[in-house]
Amino acid sequence: MRIYQKKIVFVGIIILLVNLACGLTGTATSVPPTQVPLEITPVSFVPLPEVITDEDQVLIELYKRVNPAVVNINTFSIQNGIVQPTGQGSGFVFDSTGYIVTNAHVIIGADEIDVIFSDSSTRNGTIVGEDYHSDLAVIKVDDLPAGIQPIPLGNIESIAVGQTVVAIGNPFGLGGTLTRGIVSGIGRTIPALTPFSIPQAIQTDAPINPGNSGGPLLNLEGEVIGVNAQIETSGDNRSNSGVGFAIPVSIVNRVIPVLIEEGSFEWAWFGVIGSSLSPTLIQAMDLPFDKGAYIIEIVEDGPSSKAQLQGAEEQISYEGRRIEVGGDVITAIEGQPVNTFDDLLIYITLFASPGQDVFITVWRDGEYKDISVTLEKRPESDAFFP
Fold first, then answer.
1. CATH 2.30.42.10 domain span(s) along the chain
2. Binning pLDDT at 50, 70 and 90, where does residue 53 land?
3. Cα gap 100→181, rounded to integer Å
4. Distance in angstroms (rounded) separating the CA atoms of residues 145 and 161
């Protein structure tokens, strides 16, 4: 489970705290011989019938159906000829040929991988492909235990804040653990294992902890709507505090088939650093609108630099705040409105490819301009854990 504080990625350390509860037993006292005990009529207790609500039954049946396709993953490295355990996580069966989806950070640097199924059978896993930009990876086993069915993928458009979701995985090494919660937020942007970000992430309060990484976040139909990846923490607390994040199924759908086919995925690169518009910036730049993606900085020799887009030109003090002004404001891409910087990121991430020309509309010097930008492949970047 990757944990971050200020939108920065780092690897969680697995800590298991066990609280023991002890019951106290009272000591019986005898009745004094001179005291006549009261006659007490025994009370007959009629056992209540077992009550299973409709939602209980849904969760019970979902677990029976899905859990066999959720796996525990243990990784090992070989150092000086000695095999050392390096980590653990979760994953789920993607198809009937033995491909398994997990997080890239679960298997990073692994020399050997053990895949453990719910019936305790174990297979050796081999890495098929990994993508640090989406923190997704695919491993493969030679065969699946009898009867296992792949878990189907859901639809990003069907996800709504407030809907019930379920996480199944391997928190703290406790395989086959199911936790329940809701979708707490959608459209979050979370850090990747690289300097780039992952858009459309799903926020949930379903308890996920170190070891849940790579496991599925499911709707009540038993469809994967996300891959559990990160939790928000503070201080030294490295367990769940009610804010977890899953990589959205929209990115899973785009990346995983390509990793299976080619072993890697090439992301389009726009080459800017920016933010959404703020009220202060709108007033300071006297903008006639209140939505858009503001360009703060253009990456040198990047696609936007070659298209002559403009970043902020100066820093000024406005109503006591230091702000950077003078940059282009992107209001549309390929005819689609851009209301926030995340809108720009989502389009480039989900709908664009390296080498593609995209047409954007920017506000500059009091007027709109249409500009073509030829996207490039993201620069090579090793995984990092600040």
1. 268-377
2. low
3. 24
4. 36
Q: Round to whole Å and give the CA distance between 385 and 301.
A: 26
The DSSP element (H or E) to which 175 belongs, if any, is: none
Residue range 71-120, pLDDT digits in tens = 999 999 999 999 999 999 999 999 999 999 999 999 999 999 999 999 99
From residue 34, how far is each of 30, 31, 37, 80 by CA, in Å? 12, 8, 10, 81
pTM for this model (two decimals)? 0.83
pLDDT of residue 254: 97
pLDDT in tens, 221-267: 999 999 999 987 655 666 667 899 999 999 999 999 999 999 999 99
Determine whether 120 is an active site residue. Answer: no
Q: Which CATH superfamily is domain 268-377 in?
A: PDZ domain (2.30.42.10)
133 classed as catalytic? no
> Among the options 90, 105, 205, 250, which is catalytic?
105
Catalytic residue (one of 135, 328, 342, 343): 135
135 in active site: yes
* CATH code that applies to domain 1-9+53-265: 2.40.10.120
In the chain, the amino acid numbered 84 is Q
